[in-house]
Amino acid sequence: MTEHHPSEAGAPERTRTGELKIFINYRRDDMMGWAQLLYDRLAIRFGADNVFLDVRTLKPGVLWLEEIKTHAGTGAFLALIGPRWQSSMAERRPSEDYVRIEIEYALSRSSNVEVIPLVVGSAVPPTRTGLPTSLHPLTNIQIARLREERVDEDVEVLIARLAEIAVAKRADDVVPAPRVSTPAPAPAPATPTSVAATPPDSHYDLVLRHLIDEGSVVTLLGSTLSRGSRTDGWSEETGAPPDADDLAATLARQLDMVPAPSHLPQVAQYVWETLGKADLYKPLNRVLASALEPGPVHRFLASLPAKLESLGVEPRYQMIVTTNYDMALERAFEAAGEPFDLVMYMASGPDEGRFVHFPYQASTQTAITVPNAYSGLPMDEYGELRRTIIVKINGAADGTMIGVRWRGNYVITEDHYIDYLSRSPVESLVPIQLLDKLRDSHCLFLGYTMCDWSLRVFLKRIWSDTPLGAKSWAVVSSVDALEKEFWMHANVDVYTATAPDYLAGIEERLEARHAADTRR
Fold it and tell me: How does the average pLDDT of the chain come out, rounded?
């Protein structure tokens, strides 16, 4: 590799980039030469004071990560990826891998730096396989290339992209006019009825108090999150996650079932019995294993910690329990740069019948073999979470995480649910930290109906057919008399609204509460 420096006379004019700082992240064992070449080229164009390379820039005693944090809102972060980038990561302990620590910080929502994966030489872009969850967002970012045979051209392309980032960041620095907030209306008296057409402000205030002030709300997501808010039907081309009825219809079509049963466990059981599990899982995987777009509920939950931080509220992290098989919720958190741990029930494979914990930042998963003694979740003895925890209680579509691959991982047929329900006691199945958090919290049910097998099985497993210990709430698009009785028996108040509209009301009330607190 030969370095080429333009002569001073012929050097291009330095780009005016304001306060943009450029950080070069690399591994010394195979990227040192490339990093220094890149530093020299960028220093000519952007100024040496604006380009940070540890061996060229840092003075003794200066911490590289702290330098990144100092310029967090004004930086571009170049992650140089060489042929040994991923294998070198596997050889190091996470706490001692400073290259990885820097990338994790750059990807976090608190950094606000623009990350560019720069694939160097013969290296290939990173994939999720073998990467810790904390680095998965890196695989979703458009890469840049730096090739020996086209180094001049590739550097110019990179410089143009950095110049665009500088312009965008200067635009972001424009401070908008302050918004005039209207006074928050006084809370309405609490309604004694268990079913209400529109949630009153007093309900939102109550939920926010438990959710934000006390951290004692667990959100449970069912398969009908978008029901009642769709303007048209679902199809595989929409890119949106299907609900249980959509999956049932997909399975029924391959058997020409007329009329098609509407309950997914019933249809799944029939396909299993008549065609076999391969014909059950193949259409499910075709629909669910694709890159489904997160919906408004997923995006709201993923953005909530950052929203609280922007309002100056102490961050509260969530435990979110979902019966859905798609990975749209996880994708929403990755897109938001929000850390999370994943806990998934395994219905197949070597860990069949157990939950497996995929910790954020970890390079390996943990099969929870002794649930009533497991204490590895990011949660203290009082149920306070240090990170969001996503719990998938019915498995998930075919996928891979930190090198662990699962296939046919569904609790979906009637027999699956019966087997799930027959395991006793529940403490031998569900990790005790999750059980305690559920039983000590208020539950917010979004996207569930009474006919949902997964909900009924779950409630019976956790609360043994007794009412929930803390007043809880369900949001449904419509409710009949039977549904009303079901929720009342469970000590759950019902509100008829779509889940997106309900969460929009939560967000509006949160901002009104913040405006009222600011005026005090």
Answer: 82
225 close to 329: Cβ distance less than 8 angstroms: no
Strand order in the sheet with 195-196: 195-196, 492-496, 472-476, 442-446, 217-221, 319-322, 388-392, 340-346, 354-358, 366-367
Q: Identify whether 425 is preceded by a cis peptide bond (ω within 30 of 0).
A: yes
- Ranges of H-type helices in 367-480: 414-422, 432-439, 453-463
Q: Regarding beta strands 404-406 and 399-401, do their DSSP bridges make them parallel or antiparallel, or are they unpaired? A: antiparallel
| pLDDT (mean) for 85-104 | 84
- What span, in angstroms and rounded, lies between the C-alpha atoms of 20 and 148? 27
| Token pair recorded at residue 349 | 């494979």
Residue 518 exposed, middle or buried by CB count within 10 Å (0-12, 13-18, 19+): exposed
Identify the residue with better confidence: 448 or 321. 321
- Give the separation between CA 407 and CA 220, rounded to whole angstroms: 24
What backbone phi and psi angles, to 5 degrees, belong to 117? Answer: -70, 120
User: What would the DSSP string read from start to end of 215-284?
Assistant: --EEEEE-S-TTTTT-SS---TTS-SPP-HHHHHHHHHHTTT-SSPPS-HHHHHHHHHHHT-HHHHHHHH
The phi, psi pair for 344, rounded to 5°, reads -130, 135
**What is the DSSP-derived secondary structure letter of residue 385?**
B
Q: Which ranges in 292-388 belong to alpha helices (H)?
A: 296-310, 328-336
Residue with tokens 């741990």: 341
Please tell me the distance from the alpha carbon of residue 461 to that of residue 470, in angstroms, as a whole number.
17
Is the pLDDT at 482 greater than 90? The verdict is: no
| Residue 60 neighbours by CB under 8 Å, 6+ apart | none
Query: Is residue 51 within a helix (H) or strand (E), and if so which, with residue range?
Result: strand 51-52
Q: Among residues 323, 296, 326, 260, which one has the least CA distance to residue 452?
A: 323
The whole-angstrom separation of Cα 168 and Cα 18 is 11
Q: What is the pLDDT of residue 18?
A: 54
Exposure string for 157-180, b = 16+ CB within 10 A, e = fewer = ebbeebbebbeebeeeeeeeeeee
Element (H, E) at 195: strand 195-196
Residue for token digits 């390996």?
Answer: 364
Matching residue, tokens 């699956």: 416
CB 286 within 8 A of CB 235: no
Residue 264: which residues within 8 A CB-CB, separation 6 or more? 223, 244, 245, 247, 248, 251, 412, 453
Q: Are 326 and 100 in contact (CB under 8 A)?
A: no
Q: Which domains does the chain have, with CATH numbers?
A: 21-172 (3.40.50.10140), 195-230+291-519 (3.40.50.1220)
Query: Mean pLDDT, to the nearest integer, of 8-25?
Result: 59
- Residue 414's identity, in one-letter code, is E
